[in-house]
Amino acid sequence: MSRTGSAVAGIGAAALGAAAGQLVAFGVNPAAAPIVAVGAAIVDRVPTPLKEWAVATLGTADKAVLIATVVVGVAVLSAVAGILAARRPAVGYGLLAVVGLIGVVAASTRPASGQLDWLPSIVGTAVAMAVLRLELRWLADRPGQGPDARAGIDRRVLITGAAGVVAAGAAAALSGGSAAPTASAPVTIPTAATPEPALPAGLEATVPDVSPLRTPIEDFYRIDTALVLPRVSTDTWTLQVDGMVASPFTLTWAELLAMPMIERDITLTCVSNPIGGPYISSTRFLGVRVADLLRRAQPNAEADQVLSSSVDGFTASTPLAVLLDGRDAMIAIAMDGQPLTQVHGFPARLVTPGLYGYVGATKWLSRLKVSTFAADEAYWTQRGWSENGPVKTATRIDTPVERIAPGKAVIAGVAWATHRGVGKVEVQVDNGPWTTTQLGPDVGLDYWRQWYLPWDATAGPHRLSARAYDASGLPQIADVQDVLPDGATGYHVVQVNVG
Questions:
Q1: Residue 80 needs a FRET pair 20 to 30 A away by CA distance; which of 43, 284, 323, 337 works?
Q2: Which contacts qualify for 373-380: CB closer than 8 Å, 24 or more apart?
Q3: Residue 206: what pLDDT?
Q4: Model's pTM, two decimal places?
């Protein structure tokens, strides 16, 4: 039999095995699907600079690219296994078993792995081996004549391979779920004890291309480590509050909804957001004050952090003092008047004004453990990021970009100094003087400010720079620093061609 036929047989067998594993994972744990588990293990183990490169280069497509890379890698190994199995069965099937073992180890060693997370990879490997044996038998039994024989590819092998690819894709789509909340009945969110007034009209009504004052849910940025979005039912969801406390307790969904609710307008930003980057958004959140939960639990005097955990095993460490300093950190259940979407942490997430997301915005929240920084390291602090993540004052030029026509124009954007407030924004054109801009509506210390500056744009290339000041008059840091270990610094600079 030909090497091509054997390789196709190996790929087809692996595809059907992956489909079987995916379907088993749908009943066990979607994150335990072989391809997903291997991808998640890679995310956990790659060096931090490589992760930052992926986010900066690929943006929100980083997860899709990773999964595609894993699929290609498995396909190559499976093709080699098919070729070897045709000539040296023990070696070929052994390689296929090793591929399956990688999936078993990856699924079983995840932080939130369950007792049966090994099962999808085992089933997938068994199916792949059985299918490969059948395909190789078909190839060996083919008559040695005719054009198909010279090509060495049996139609049944091609059909099996195609069916495997389709089945694997369908199984992945089935287990991927939707972005809708998961509950036995539609989720009804309560109202806040003191509802916030409606947001004022933003500059977007009069300044084209500036970021809207409130970010639409579908445009709200997403940065997390989940390759498969957790699917959490409000029927079984609980929030455990324990650790170094005098009175640990567990809340059900109904008990959480029965607590006093607050709504606040908050800007969230990711520590991986480069100067001028897109990983920042603003909206109105509804939830329960974290401070209320912590006071009920009564933290020990020695405690200095709260380790929040997601249902998928992700952890974040938030300074205890920050959660008790009077800011409106909350367990959010809704954004922009709607229940949280699955993408943004349904049914509940942590939201901490003034902190980057990696230390204060855990999604799919399941536990708050009062602890110390010395005793517990969170996911990102284990990987070289700072323990404390206060948001730095910064601004972004939204418009203009690249090229505009000469004449009357507007330079505009957004600035933020979360939990300190924005005092002013200045713009510099080329090497000219810094000019104070007009600020948009003030929504509060925890929310960004829109700004704009009329500009008489003359023909030629121009360099636009912007810098922000917080409400106390402190300017943003001018020195350029990358995002690692505690957020980027420097002024946003845009090159614009007028003409």
A1: 43
A2: 373/304, 373/305, 373/317, 376/305, 376/307, 376/315, 376/317, 377/317, 378/307, 378/315, 378/316, 378/317, 379/225, 379/314, 379/315, 379/316, 380/271, 380/316
A3: 95
A4: 0.85
